Amino acid sequence: MAIEHKLIGKDFIVPDIEAKVTGRAKYVEDFRADNMVFCKSLTSPIPHAKIRSIDTSAALKMPGVLGILTADDVPQFPPPAQGIFAKDETFYIGEPILAIAADTEENAVAAIEAVKIDFQELPHVVDPLESLFPGGPNARSGGNVAAGQIKLQTVKWEGADFATAGDTKMPLGRPAEEWTYGDPDAGFKKAKVIIEENFVSGTYSHNCMETRSAFSYWQGGKCFLYGSNQSQTAAIANISRYIGIKPNQLVFIAEYCGGGFGSKIPGYPNMAIAALMSKKINRPVMHTISRYEEYGIGSARPGFQGYIKMGFAPNGKMLAADLYVVQESGPMATAGDFRAAGAAMSMVYQPESMRFRTVPVLTNTVPVGAQRGPGENQFVAVIEPMLDKAARQLNIDRFDIRIINAPDSNGKIGHDRAPLTSAFLKDALAKLKTFSNWDERKKRSGQKNGTKLTGIGIGQGYHSAGSNGFDGLLRITPDGKLHVHTGVGNLGTHSWASTARVAPDLLNVSWDNVVIERGDTRRGLPFNSPQAGSLTASTESRTMYAAAMDMKDKLTDIAAQMLGGKAEEYELGEEKVIHKGGGKSVTYGQVAQKAMELGGKYSGKEMPDELNPVTKSAVAVIAGSGLIAAVKDKLPRVGTTPGLTCNVAEVEIDSETGVVEVKECMSVVDVGTVLFPLGLGHQIASGQIMGIGMAHLERHIYDPKLGIPAAVGFHQGKVPTYLDIPPNITWQAVEKPDPQHPLGIKGVGEPALGSGASAITSAIADALGGHLFNRTPVTADMILNHLSGRPPAHKPLQVNTV
Questions:
Q1: Is the dihedral of CA 229, 230, 235, 236 positive or negative?
Q2: Any residues with CB less than 8 A from the CB of 570 and at least 6 apart, and which?
Q3: Helix (H) or strand (E) holding 670
Q4: Residue 796's pLDDT band (boundaries 50, 70, 90)?
Q5: Over residues 545-572, mean pLDDT
Q6: Mean pLDDT of 93-120
Q7: How many C-beta neighbours within 10 Å does residue 141 have?
Q8: Using CA atoms, how far apart are residues 382 and 197, in angstroms rounded to an integer?
Q9: Selection from 460, 457, 455, 516 nearest residue 486 by Cα
Q10: What is the mean pLDDT of residues 628-651?
Q11: How far apart are CA 174 and CA 163, in angstroms?
Q12: How does pLDDT run across 49-63, given as a tens digit for each residue?
């Protein structure tokens, strides 16, 4: 029998919404303190250089200057990890070299301009294939290839690899990593249709509205840091590492985050500058970051240069796939998108056999990192139109080719064919076909009305969307209030609040009687998952469930001690514990008071050893103040939990200007049990909007000779505006629960971007008679060149170009 939920699955007013719309919400640069000073960074004007010398003598004599921080003053990390400051060698324009503190921001800027640095310019590279060419430049003196689990090394392909490929094909040189399952060569021999293409997915900035400014001071041997970050307690260890302190020495305040999109997950090196400067000069320090500086340190989505070969049976089933991805990794080993692309290929399309090869190449462009659906989203945006090409050659419907290849709950992922907790993408596609009125809508494919060409596209998206093993922490105080302690960051998705509603739902507590403790580690915040990878909804609802069950057991146990009988004779009523036989009851507040008298495990004086040290510190903060439930999520979970989405998009292309107008977006999501419908709708819509940017607007541009970036800031970066958004973005959910989650919940924030982007790229191809650009973004000049019969303005595999 289904449980009737009062809060789960219901809309509500998010507690912080009034502060946000009235301006009372305080972001980093809103904070002030007595004797506070300002700090500014000096960044590299050169893409790759040796630092011969730094002369700060004139800067230190300038009015108001209070201190300087250089690489010699901060913790160092082994290359190619991203450091706080460049030391000896700079790797991109915009890399921080030092910082100066002064009494005003203007004086700090003036002092920065007085610093003299002697650089020795080194060869730079903005195109990974150029670096792989024999004798090509390396982005670092120590090598040109690195990633997690791939040591820094120099990789050069053979000249024959490039000669064989020519200018139009992807060279297939020695990979840094590869895997295979099944027999792809045999699969290709059996295939009726083979699709073989090269592709490029462009890199572009995260463009967070709030830059990476930070504010810090020291008190009582602890560092107080105010930062813009997606995650709260999951970031403590990493931020502490950058500052060079123990986690219990950090007080981290991050109540609001003005955008992260994956770039502010575990904390970042720039956060440490304010803290270390404050420690050095013994003053509170505000380190401000401009929009231009944010471009340099604010991260970007990695780009791909790739090759794909897919073999299909007559019914559309994918028999074999061969994928080679060269990743543009920036100068640091900070992104694993290339691996995620391989996993996505194996997961979304379930090929019977597959070969995957990859090389993550370092470049003298800005550092890259996770951006909403890292690896999966930029991959499907170029692959989905190719699926339409296969469908046309096989003379089958574009929905049908996706449905036959889509995973179900018996699907597998990766080279080791690992299991899934659930997958209902087939159901989602079938629902979308009806929801979009596909049979009628597709009749408009390729229609021309004056100068406008209509295209209809389908897209799919995937990202892992759940984890486990984190801690839940609840507290009931003698006034009867339920305090939900959450280490979830406030990255703008409302997940900190929607997951907090699980506990009062299960404990029969009114939402009006709930206090959410968050945003400041002094409030006793447990170790929770990072706010990344669509993890929060699924992962934190599990921890809330585990904590609520522990709280329920303690409520009934103490009630039995107070009223007599056994714990199993009691049940939870409306904020009170009731004897099942009737008559006897005790309020939650009375139980909390008794817990304080009993002490031990009931009041938090004793706690499970298995709790994370962050959680143990949090429990110690609140111990003795009520009835405490602190527990680790040990509920069973085997396999990857996939968030899955699919989209239909309709576009119009102006054949005279090449401008793409997205007319409508429709989405169906496999999200398990819907936790917060309004919030889910916002996530889907925001994914579609970011997908618009990926599909035909946003990209990096670099001068290949000078290494200078051109697409800096919101305007030049072509971030989608209201004028780019369709009037109708609609959605539905499959609403089949995940069986390995106690409430059936899965996340879905990331894949909505991928399915949105790929539906648009597919629709653009459809409007142009199936023409494949095999590149994102598909810009107006590319479309005009195609329509007029002119060659593209760039070579097929060229990157970072107009």
A1: positive
A2: 555, 556, 559, 560, 563, 577, 578, 579, 580
A3: strand 660-670
A4: very high
A5: 97
A6: 98
A7: 12
A8: 10
A9: 516
A10: 97
A11: 15
A12: 999 999 999 999 999
Q: Which of 242, 289, 261, 258 is nearest to 96 (CA)?
A: 289
Give the number of other CB atoms < 10 A from CB of residue 199.
26
| 377 DSSP assignment | H
Q: Which two tokens stand for residue 732?
A: 């539905």
Residue whose entry in the numeric block shows the structure tokens 């990593």: 177
Residue type, 275: A
C-alpha span between 625 and 39 (Å, rounded): 40
pLDDT of 408 strictly over 90: yes
The C-alpha atoms of residue 686 and residue 293 are separated, in whole angstroms, by 25
In this prediction, what percent of the chain has a pLDDT beyond 90? 98
**Mean pLDDT computed over every residue of the chain:** 97
Listed in sequence order, the residues at least 6 apart from 582 whose beta carbon sits closer than 8 Å to its beta carbon are: none
| Main-chain dihedrals φ then ψ at residue 579, nearest 5 degrees | -70, 135
* Angle between helices 751-767 and 376-394 in degrees, nearest 10: 40
Which of 365, 364, 306, 370 lies closest to 334, judged by CA?
A: 370
In angstroms, rounded to a whole number, what is the distance separating the alpha carbons of residues 545 and 633?
A: 8
pLDDT at 287: 98
Pairing state of beta strands 285-287 and 37-43? parallel
pLDDT given at position 335: 87
Structure tokens given for 201 = 């997915």
- For residue 87, the tally of other CB atoms under 10 A from its CB is 15
Q: Is the dihedral of CA 324, 328, 331, 336 positive or negative?
A: negative
Q: Output the CA torsion sign for 681, 687, 691, 697.
A: positive
DSSP letter, residue 303: E
Whether the domain at 300-466+639-787 and the domain at 468-632 fall into the same CATH topology: yes
Confidence of residue 1 (pLDDT cuts 50, 70, 90): very low
Of 147, 89, 522, the closest CA to residue 368 belongs to 147
HEC per residue, 98-142 = EEEEECCHHHHHHHHHHCEEEEEECCCCCCHHHHHCCCCCCCECC
> How far apart are the C-alpha atoms of 708 and 12, rounded to whole Å?
47
**Tokens linked to 204:** 């572009």
Q: 2 falls in which pLDDT band (50, 70, 90)? A: low
- The CATH T-level fold of domain 31-122+212-287 is Aldehyde Oxidoreductase; domain 3 (3.90.1170)
Domain ranges of the chain: 31-122+212-287, 300-466+639-787, 468-632
Q: For the domain with range 468-632, which CATH number is right: 3.40.50.2300, 3.30.365.10, 3.30.540.10, 3.40.50.360?
A: 3.30.365.10
In this structure, the number of other CB atoms found within 10 A of the CB of residue 395 comes to 9
| pLDDT surpasses 80 at 3 | no
Q: What is the DSSP letter of 87?
A: B
What element of type H or E holds 586?
A: strand 585-587
Mean of pLDDT values over 68-80: 96
For 135, what's the count of Cα atoms within 13 Å in the CB-facing half-sphere? 2
Query: If we measure between CA atoms, which residue out of 525, 748, 521 comes closest to residue 641?
Result: 748
Query: What distance in Å separates the CA atoms of residue 732 and residue 432, rounded to the nearest whole number?
Result: 8
DSSP-assigned states of every residue in 676-703 = -HHHHHHHHHHHHHHHHHHHHT----B-
Is domain 300-466+639-787 in CATH 2.60.120.380, yes or no? Answer: no
Residue type, 201: S
- DSSP class of residue 18? H
Cα–Cα distance measured from residue 766 to residue 781, given in angstroms and rounded to the nearest whole number: 18
Average pLDDT over residues 584-603: 98
* Residue 666: partners with Cβ closer than 8 Å, 6 or more residues away: 432, 435, 436, 647, 648, 649, 728, 729, 730, 731
Question: Residue 569: phi, psi to the nearest 5?
Answer: -85, 0
- Do 125 and 131 form a contact (C-beta atoms < 8 A)? yes
